Amino acid sequence: MSWLVTGGAGYVGAHVVHALAATGAQVVVLDDLSTGDAGRLDALPAVPVVVGSVRDRGLVRRVLREHAVQGVVHLAAREQAEESGADPLTAWTENVEGLVALLEGCRAKGVSRFVLTSSTAVYGEPDTEPLTEEAPCRPLSPYGRTKLAGEWLLRDCAAAYGLAAVSLRLSDVAGAADPRLGDTSTAHLLPRVFTALDAGTPVVADPSVVRDHVHVADVVEAHLAAVRALEGDSPGGTYNVGTGRGTSVLDVLRVVAEVTGGDSTPELSGRRPEEPARVVPDVGRIGRELGWRARHDLHDVVASAWTAWRHSQPL
């Protein structure tokens, strides 16, 4: 089948493109390169890359038509919660208006399979565990609200137009399956920690925050499981993606010290308003229905991220 991967030059997107192309699927990338790393773009396999925005309706329809696209994996988004609080209009424009334009194109060109990369940010500050997909969604940031709105929109389109759709609510993604494809965004925990280590400055963080840190290679496998389900005529669904285990920032910093040999003792900071204290999703549904589970532990995550970080730094 032919799949369009939006945001395919980004951190998670580039990993998905590599894995999807390796299955024999025909893959085309659409990315505006606003947040992609140039080195990561150079490391993509030999697939067509179209530079442009998912909000460009004419471009989207042309790409879907010219590449005979049968399914979409939509990863393109503004995904920083703190940034979305400072500039909510950009977050809503990119994340929701972009999804509207993409779904309009899919409807016009008869594309009937769609994978949306969402986030556990939709839950906000959970008050119950296990945190299943039926838990109340009360996102704390504009980013989380745009992801929830995107899920609602996709669900409505699936019901109205016969679209088979999967929404994947990702936990905190880290690590690298290939050193060329590592995460370099200092909005994320590990790149921020590695930057501080390189500079010999303290890591500023709230060590008590608990998240589910999932290896990007496992996240890729979740996307492939969703693709296989849709190719097999599954109607789709909404799934949490993570290990099902929570680790505090302090736990992560301890593993960083083990892997790097550096001093990752944190300088204490307060938790940001858009940052929940604890988010650890239940991943039972995706295991039962799509046969997926995470296979990497926290040491794998940190070690692969550090290798990729060293690869990305100038000599």
From TrEMBL:
<dbReference type="Pfam" id="PF01370">
    <property type="entry name" value="Epimerase"/>
</dbReference>
<comment type="pathway">
    <text>Carbohydrate metabolism; galactose metabolism.</text>
</comment>
<dbReference type="InterPro" id="IPR036291">
    <property type="entry name" value="NAD(P)-bd_dom_sf"/>
</dbReference>
<comment type="similarity">
    <text>Belongs to the NAD(P)-dependent epimerase/dehydratase family.</text>
</comment>
<dbReference type="GO" id="GO:0033499">
    <property type="term" value="P:galactose catabolic process via UDP-galactose, Leloir pathway"/>
</dbReference>
<feature type="domain" description="NAD-dependent epimerase/dehydratase">
    <location>
        <begin position="3"/>
        <end position="242"/>
    </location>
</feature>
<protein>
    <recommendedName>
        <fullName>UDP-glucose 4-epimerase</fullName>
    </recommendedName>
</protein>
<dbReference type="InterPro" id="IPR001509">
    <property type="entry name" value="Epimerase_deHydtase"/>
</dbReference>
